[in-house]
Structures are given as structure tokens and as C-alpha cells.
Amino acid sequence: MFTTYFKMAHHPFSEELPVERFLKDERITQGLARLEYFAKEGRIALITGTTGVGKSSLIRLFVHHLSRHLFQPVYLYLTHVKTTGLLNLIVSGLGEMPKRGKDRLFLQILEKTKKTELTTLLIIDEAQLMQPESLTDLRLLVSSVIGEKPALKILLSGQETLRDQLKQAARADFVNRICVRYHMPPLSKEQTVAYLDYQLRLAGASEKIFEPEAKQLIHDYAGGIPRDINNIATACLINAATRNLQKINDHLVNETMVEFHLP
Q1: How buried is residue 215: exposed, middle or buried, by Cβ count under 10 Å (0-12/13-18/19+)?
Q2: Which end of the chain has fewer CB within 10 Å, C or N?
């Protein structure tokens, strides 16, 4: 494996990196600041961005730093279900057996979240796949605690199409309750270089494995999307190791990119 060839302690571009190894770039810092405010003051937060841009990494860092003495996070991502199915998933995430009937599910969620001293933080990933009626249900769950200390907070995370869905007039009541909105941008060219260097050093390797022109080219091909950067950099390392090369230049990056074109 290329990690042995380059004498790396671990895979530098794996998506399974522990949160302690995440690079807190400006985008992450800005996102965390908004989510920390949401945790203290808000009821609904919205994170959007193209697929692979780092929304999940941001959420993982946010949850990692949450006080377990104050919050109970519940994470859902199977959002492409009917509205009753989503309520069922929420109840199951709270550790209870869902009851029959939408009205009973509503009461079950409200009663369960109010019984605990912890604030339930409902994190809904891939929120762009939700049924429109589900947004109404979520709004009602949050609205039911107005005037009291919120027992339930909702964090929606989704692709850019989620923003378009929320612009519809029918979603105005939900949007008005969003206290934090953050659209996560891709990495700039400078941030991509810093990201590549950071992950290589963290793995015990030299950032000079990739020549400067190669790093710039990886950014251009990936468009600054971290997941694509990871995939391209990994493919380049594999390619270099199989050819017994110690350096990755722009020519090797171009050759490697042929693998990414589907027939």
C-alpha cells in the first residue's frame, strides 16, 4: 500500500479521520461560530453546501464539542421518507418504540424531549430530500415550546437545492424560525495547498511529495471540494507508489485524472 511506500503513519486523505485530525480552516471556524450561537440561543439552524464540501466534518466537530451534560444529539440521514416515517425515525432516535398515528408520534416526541433535563439536538442530514410536509411538522415541534426553555433544537444540513426549497412562500413560517444560516464554500487554492500539506504532515510524510504545480492542479480539478481533493490525492499516491516515484508532479496528476472519467 502507498502508506508503507511513503512511510506514512496512516492514510492522510481518508474520510474516516478522527475529529482531532481535522484542519480547522476559515470555513470551519466560521461555521462553528454560528453553530455555537445556535446551541446557546437558537431553535433552528441551516447548513448548506455542495456535496463533499465538508458539511459533515463541520457537524462532527460541532457535536464533538457539545457538552453531554447539556445536549442529547440525535442524528438522522434517511430523510427520503414520508412525513410519518420521519417522525418514526425521530422517536426511534430518542430511544422509544414509535406509536401508531401521527398525532401520537407528535405527543411522543414532545413528551420525551420535555422529560429529560438535556436539550435534544435533532440533526437532519440530506435535508434536501425531505418531503415538504416534513418541514411543517418540524416547525410545529419547535413552535410548541415557545415561551419555555427549548427542549428541542433542529439542525438541517443539505445540498444547495435545499435553499431553493426554502425560498418558496409556503416555507416562510419555517424560514422565519431559522436563527443561523451558513452556506459552506469550497476551499480556495491557498486553502487546498494548506489542506494537502497539513494532512501529509499529520501522517508523518513530507508535503514535498506533491510538487507545487501538482497541488495547484489538484485544486483546479477538484474545484476546491475536499472530498474530491481526497480522492484525487489518494489516486496520485497510489499511481506514484506503483511506479516507484518519490514525487508527484503535474504530469502525473493529469495522467491520474484519466481514471476519473467514466466511460
Answers
A1: buried
A2: C
Q: How confident is the model at residue 132 (pLDDT cuts 50, 70, 90)?
A: confident
Provide the pLDDT for residue 245: 96
Distance CA 23, CA 21 (A): 6
C-alpha cell at 227: 472530498
Shared-domain flag, residues 179 and 194: no
Q: Collect all residues with Cβ–Cβ distance below 8 Å to 66 and sequence separation of at least 6.
A: 39, 73, 121
Dmax of the chain from CA atoms?
A: 66
> Cell triple for residue 229?
481533493
Q: Has this prediction a pTM greater than 0.85?
A: yes
User: Could you tell me if residue 98 is left (phi over 0), alpha (psi between -120 and 50 degrees) or otherwise beta?
Assistant: beta
pLDDT of residue 179: 94
Domain count, the chain: 2
Q: Is residue 168 part of a domain?
A: yes
* Beta-strand relationship, 119-124 and 152-158: parallel
Domain extent at residue 228 = 187-256
Residue that is last in its domain, among 127, 156, 183: 183
Distance CA 129, CA 106 (A): 21
Which sign, positive or negative, has the C-alpha torsion 212, 218, 220, 226? negative
Among the three residues 183, 217, 233, which one is the final residue of a domain in this structure?
183
Average pLDDT over residues 222-240: 97
Element (DSSP H or E) covering residue 152: strand 152-158
Class of residue 174 by CB neighbours under 10 A (exposed 0-12, middle 13-18, buried 19+): buried
Residues 138 and 244 in one domain: no
